[in-house]
Write a structure and sequence with these properties.
By secondary structure, the protein is mostly helical. The protein has one domain. The chain is 61% helix and 0% strand.
């Protein structure tokens, strides 16, 4: 069972990303993952962990994308 939840501030960012037509596909994927974990016991899957990890390590993504990636990783099992 995963007791970790997305914070209210990060879910707000995620919502804004999903509504923005100019947001990148990776940002939207991370935002969807954040929102799916907001009020549930869902946890980050292996594939999303890999995507989030790559986003954090890359210089090509902005602060918003990295914030979402950090949130996604913080809710993983850390295997």
């Amino acid at each position: 069972m995963n007791s970790k939840k997305s914070s209210q501030s990060v879910t707000k960012i995620a919502s804004e990303v999903l509504r923005n037509p100019n947001s990148s596909q990776i940002s939207k994927s991370l935002a969807g993952s954040v929102l799916s974990q907001a009020n549930s016991q869902n946890q980050t899957g292996d594939q999303m962990e890999k995507i989030a990890s790559k986003a954090l390590q890359s210089e090509k993504y902005n602060e918003t994308t990295k914030t979402l990636a950090g949130s996604v990783l913080s809710q993983s099992n850390g295997k």
